[in-house]
Write a structure and sequence with these properties.
Helices cover about 45% and strands about 15% of the residues. It is built from 12 helices and 8 strands.
């Protein structure tokens, strides 16, 4: 059980390649988004007992070098790293995997797009990813060994965040090589034309959970708070990203200001 749900003081430390194993055995996993480009912040957050961190590049100003450094800092803190890549494109996907992270790919609206993600992320015969001398391959020192295990250990997630994607969820979740379907509730609300937190977003999210469960695929979602994360876990989601480092810093500072003013 993750820290947010299990009440334990310190999470079990695992090498990043164990994230897929934990998904496959049904563990509930809780982490936070990292929006700051600071490796120091990443190292601190990664040392606190979370199950993972997710580096946010879709809506944050993190460039290639910053992502590389933040992944390294998270790994040094003993916590697996995911990267929500900036675009549904080959280069960002491969770069994150080469750096030793898992990937969440946004804006996947169909099974065909999910298959394209798998093709970019998997080595032959499952895909067409090329071998590079990145961190995951020991900067070129362990390419053969990495090639042998990468398809079996990498985590490839696709994000469902539109009405079309919800309708396609059964087919998306059934694509071989997709390890997780992840719901983006904010963009999903926009796509549905309803306010954030509307019950219709919850209904759509639960439809994704059901489709993923039927396909034997884990599902994940974002939550603004630990209380919201618990509700999503209870609803059947296996992985929840809770808030973000910058949002939590802001909440902490606001709490101090309120306490000083009271």
């Amino acid at each position: 059980m993750p820290l947010a749900c299990g009440g334990r003081a310190v999470a079990r430390r695992e090498h990043p390649i164990e994230l897929r194993t934990r998904l496959e055995r049904g563990d509930r996993l809780a982490g936070v988004f990292l929006q700051s480009p600071s490796p120091v912040s990443a190292e601190v957050v990664a040392s606190l007992g979370l199950d993972f961190v997710c580096i946010e590049t879709e809506h944050s100003p993190l460039g290639r070098e910053s992502v590389h450094a933040v992944i390294g800092a998270a790994r040094s803190g003993g916590t697996p790293a995911l990267v929500r890549v900036a675009d549904n494109a080959v280069i960002p996907i491969v770069s994150a995997l080469d750096d030793g992270a898992a990937v969440i790919v946004p804006r996947v609206d169909s099974a065909e797009e999910a298959q394209a993600v798998v093709s970019a992320a998997r080595f032959p015969p499952l895909g067409r990813r090329g071998v590079g001398p990145g961190r995951a391959a020991g900067y070129g020192r362990s390419v053969p060994e990495y090639f042998e295990r990468a398809n079996a250990t990498a985590v490839v997630a696709v994000q469902i965040e539109s009405r079309a994607a919800v309708d396609e969820a059964p087919r998306i979740a059934a694509v071989e090589g997709v390890d997780l379907v992840f719901v983006g509730p904010g963009d999903l609300a926009v796509s549905l034309g309803v306010p954030f937190g509307d019950d219709r977003v919850t209904e759509a999210a639960l439809a994704v959970v059901a489709a993923a469960r039927a396909a034997g695929c884990p599902s994940g979602i974002w939550a603004p708070s630990a209380a919201a994360a618990r509700r999503w876990f209870d609803a059947g989601f296996q992985l929840v990203i809770v808030s973000s480092d910058l949002a939590l810093v802001a909440e902490g500072v606001e709490r101090v200001i309120d306490e000083l003013a009271s």
